[in-house]
Input
Amino acid sequence: MTARTLIAVAAFAALSGWVSGSAPAVGRTADEEATLLKKNSTLLEGLLDDGLKLSAAETPLDRAAACRRAADRLSVELSAAARYEDADRVSEVGDLLTDLLTDGFLPPFTAAQADIPPSSPDFPRLQLLHRESASQFAAAVDALPTTGSFAAGRRVSAVRKKLAALAARVGTPTE
Amino acid sequence: MKCESFQNRLLALPSPAAPTPELAAHLTACGGCRAFAERAGNLDAVVAALPVPSSEVAKAAFLDSLAALGPVIHTKPSILSADPHSSTFRPFHALARRVDWKYAGGIAAAFLVAVTAWTLWPANRPPVAEKDGPRQELLAKQNKHLAALASADSADARLRVWADWTTDLRAATADVYKAAAPGDLAVLARMFDKAVRDGVLTHADRLAHDRLATGRAVLLRDTQAKMASAREQLERIGKDAPPAHKSNLKRMADTALEAQTKLADLAKGV
Output
């Protein structure tokens, strides 16, 4: 085996490694973008309306309530995806929902819980929001099946775990 | 017996001069074959009389002809040294010589068969990693804007979110306008209108009237610049857009221009 052969083998191995390790192209064509737009147009428009309502809410309680309604729109989409056993959609919408609940709902809700004492006239609204949220979170978790190959998929079970953790974090309201 | 058959059988004999009785009968009756047998006998006699060269002489002549071509081996073979400092030390050569390639080939073939079987045998396959399907960037960005609005407790914070939201809508339009159905592009145009009028301009107006807010003029001018940039891009792509999309793109560009003008007025007033 000559040095030339060794160099050729090493170069081939390096090239193979580089090719197999390269990330796939992420760019999408206009056709693919158009397909995604068609699929999501209703959801996109609804979420924008939710955003307008959210930006009109002044107090943390109002913002948490508005954010919960936006999350409700995603929950409906998640349930539909679970019914059709569309793991891609469950994963996508599940991630959106958990992000919105974690980064959007929980901060103003936690602030409202800290700011509104039981004697406040807003306290019943806070309790109602808490009940609605707990119910919504539980429904979102229940929408995802627990048995069967679809439920056993890594992405579906990951979404269910994240939602269950969020539901546990919000807890149930004390009367 | 035909003459051709006679002549073939005659040539197959050890000597044409001693034909079999059957051939002799034909020879007696056929003048042509008699003449053929006579020529064959003469040829045998001539060949037998040819001189045979000495084998020793022929061998010497052959070796001389080889030597006349010059040396065949031009380099002197060297014996491999185990000394790493030696110029003849070649570890890969030494390894290659030590390996019994017959067994190495067998092991490689067995490994290939094992890998192929492992790959094709469904029961032993590990679970295939699930890949995510295509996700729309605009949807993810809108979700982030919603989360940001939930924590935005001032007009300037909301204005920033809505300015970014309109930028994302404009970018999504530029990505898709060549392939989208007119109805779907109309959705984007409608959303852009709402985001600009009810989002950007509403909160820009509130900010302009909030005397306690700091940096109002700068933020209003920054937002105005974003609207100007949006208008320019929408006008540009509108020129080469399919005819069915031109009205939606013009509507978006007009909205951006209107916002640009109002933001400039608001910035002047603070």
In short: The mean pLDDT of chain A is 88. The longest helix of chain A spans residues 87-115.
